[in-house]
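Supplementary Methods S3. Input chains for the assembly prediction are listed below.
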Amino acid sequence: MSLPEFLSGINGLLGLQIPLLVFSVLSAVIVILLFAMPVGGICTYIERKVAADMQERVGPNRVGPIGILQFFADGIKMFLKEDTIPKNADRFLFNLAPSLVTAGSLGAFALVPFSKYVIGADLDIGVFYVMALGSLVSLGILLGAWASDNKWSLLGGMRGAAQIVSYEIPLGISVLSVVVVSGSMSMFGIVDAQAWPGSGQGGGHFWNVFHNPFLFINFFIYFTAALAECNRTPFDLPEAESELVSGFNTEFSGMRFGLYALSEFADAILFACIATAIFLGGWNLPFVDLSSIDPGIKIGEASLTPLIQTLLMMSVFLAKVSLLVFIVMWIRWTLPRLRVDQLMDLCWKYLIPISFVNLFLAAIWVWVFDGRSLLQLLGLSLGIGG
Amino acid sequence: MTFVDFFVGFCFLLGALSAVVVAFHPNILYAAVALVFSLLSVAGLYGALGADFLAAAQLIIYVGGIIVVILFAVMMSEDVYKNRGVGGWKGFFAPFIISVAVLWALLKLVNQANWPRIDVPVREHTVEAIGRALVGPYALVFQYVAIVLLAGLIGAVVIARPHYHEKSSGSNLE
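Predicted structure tokens for the full assembly:
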């Protein structure tokens, strides 16, 4: 069930008659304004705190208790700053580029399955659509860099586009190996197949990362490629501040820069969400089946069970996402930046061949064991579950 | 007018306008950017027709791959700051005749065709049908396209790799 349908279900319980289109627009607003934007903002604060902890500093601590409102102050500052455009810049493309990047990263949030009932739209082509929207990001980076009329920007933009186009291949191949195992491209279908084997729900494969050894390796390939896709260290060559000032966003100021910065964090969160959904089982936990929990609380005629299950599933999902986002930040303050040739070597000589071999072997695994996961096979041999 | 009607009309208009910009804009970078919107509107039309897989493929292949490569080429080209010369009516003569002929043929085709009318938007599982077609009746064509791609990739590697042998043999001769 998608979020608009879920909302209109609640609406039906309350006895109101509001068309589905209103709820579609409403859920887009909910996902973007209440999830992607604030979480992206809070991530800037957490990033600074994590960096401070790792360098034995205090970090932001002035605005609000332990500085938690820092992102709010930053946001106000971004809005109020003077919006400068270089004299020789291409004004039309300069205005267009940040919105392309933002559209590319926020549009894909519609496909993030937060829980069984909270997903913006459950498309058949799910993960494929997410990857397709990602291509708008590389276009926005390249055009913005060109429009700035600045050689550092242009170098950064060229690096960014080349990097994203290259790393899209291992990313796509590792996602494809998940699609082979799950037999579905819809986000809901992929997550549903990863339920705990004994629970009798969904496919009972347990988390795809433990489905077979090849998917285990492909998870790390996905994670590496995703880091490169959202320009995070050690792949932050497009904005390498020691060589390119600030790379493709050097000339952008005020809210335009804000959009670039925000969509970078939104991208990181998005890839963590997708990794959680397709590799780490989404809202599924080992040993428990959250969709069978029924506390039986009612308000009048309406049962609160779906709402409570939704909250539980969302907490599990967001806990996994937060852990991944923390690891991304941890890597940023641990590893040095790669050189351009090392970056391309890593992608074309290692990640792509390894992911292709893994895809092939995963397909053979599905063929030989009839789609069963390692855990299911163990369960069968021990005579439980399966 | 339903939402789908409005959406299809919008896509047609966007596609046509940006195609005109692609053909006539004096700056080739802008022509390339207009091509993005033209291809996006085609993706929108696919989406409206219920071909969700094709729409996403259009985005990922054309906007993400081909347009980025075209932009690279345009930005590397020498005359990107200059406006391209649109030289007189002579340059338009042959293309004009060809496009009028194509338009005439297309209109004739549209009038002759028997268009099935579907009132309810169809939503089918297109992915599975496409997959079965690619490994079933069209398997040979699919493999053939793969060979063409492989040849293209090998060609790119041959052109791009540094020519160590020529240099070393040259220095030996000296």
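The longest helix of chain A spans residues 20-54. Chain A is about 65% helix and 0% strand.
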